[in-house]
């Protein structure tokens, strides 16, 4: 009997296992996960789980009835591809087909790793450690005004904490959004009662305080570091598998790696996008849902019968009482088109390339997102004047 072994029991790993069964795989399936917990979903960790509104976020998957073998608390430490073997602390694991789905690891703030009261926010254990901090309504400092920093600040404000967010760039989400968009999002911090310090560099973190390069000392009963994440691929060093400079596993447009019988999917893998003409490393939930379907199809039916992977990326964020959604992928050179007033509660920004919609950000306008996502998929051209009128639905020219 052929065995698919999946390394990583997060969204991408679990979805691969489920998709394999859905698409008719009859062989064995094993999922090996380093964390001891029943596999769970991450987005609630910075939202309901952090606030104690939900106990956990375990996936509702009946692994036993699907014939999926789960080995939790089992970390994979190496790959010997010539022998089709994985290494673990408790002995080798053979595979016929391997799927790498080890996700990403949050970056630590150098020098702060061992300081008490400094937290990351990636795992259920992280969220459980932070929950009592919020419940005690402490003074908290978030380092990094990205998606995680904004969502943490939102939850901490809702819990009644005093919140300061320290960001090295001049604006929040500096890597993801152009300044003319981010400037409007930066105001959400103050509206919620959080303090946002931009252009601010952390010089040192001490127990109880964060010191900035300009001499400012911020009281911090807890510090949450949200300065980015990178693919958890250290265990593949020396395996012969191709890794990119950003540490992602390099895959082709079917999510096959450089080694035979080895696929990679989710936050750990980058893929070539014909749609956008560049290699994409996507750290969002939808990619960990869609990618596994491509992997499963290629394993079950073979490449000739299976689609390539070229999604329109999608993600959402819930921050400062707003539902923020983004679809597509834009470059700095793309043309920006506003739809609605960015000082109001709901607005949308479109990115056009040669008149064609390539990406859109919708704040409190889920219908724009749904319509825009379809237009992006079709490569539709927009009539600028009509698209700028927020009172009529988004349509192709
Ligand atoms: P992971 O979820 O990271 O799963 C990988 C698993 O592999 C982990 O459990 C890890 O322990 C395990 N593993 C790693 N190395 C090994 C090893 N060597 N051996 C065995 N197991 C290993 N996305 C959105 O679109 N919207 C959101 O609102 C949103 N909110 C988020 C909030 C938080 C707090 C976080 C952390 C992420 C959020 N995301 C959100 C991103 C989304 O959760 C991720 O894109 C998604 O979890 C990726 O799934 P994955 O399976 O690739 O990786």
Task: Offer a few descriptive terms.
single chain; 397 residues; alpha/beta; 5-stranded parallel β-sheet; 7 helices; 29% strand; binds flavin-adenine dinucleotide; FAD/NAD-bd_sf; FAD/NAD-binding_dom; FAD; oxidoreductase; flavoprotein
Brief account:
This protein is of the alpha/beta class and 397 residues long. The chain contains seven helices and 26 strands. The longest helix has 17 residues, at 285-301.
Written account of the structure:
The structure is a single chain. The chain is an alpha/beta fold and 397 residues long. The protein folds into 3 domains: 180 residues, 3-Layer(bba) Sandwich (FAD/NAD(P)-binding domain); 118 residues, FAD/NAD(P)-binding domain; 67 residues, FAD/NAD-linked reductase, C-terminal dimerisation domain (Enolase-like, domain 1, 2-Layer Sandwich). The chain is built from 7 helices and 26 strands. The strands form 7 sheets. It has a 5-stranded parallel β-sheet with strand order 3-2-1-7-19, covered by helices on one side. A 5-stranded parallel β-sheet has the order 9-16-10-11-12. It is globular, with a radius of gyration of 22 Å. The protein starts with a strand and ends in a 10-residue tail after the last helix. The model has no long low-confidence stretch (mean pLDDT 97). Flavin-adenine dinucleotide (FAD) binds next to α1, β2, α5 and β22.
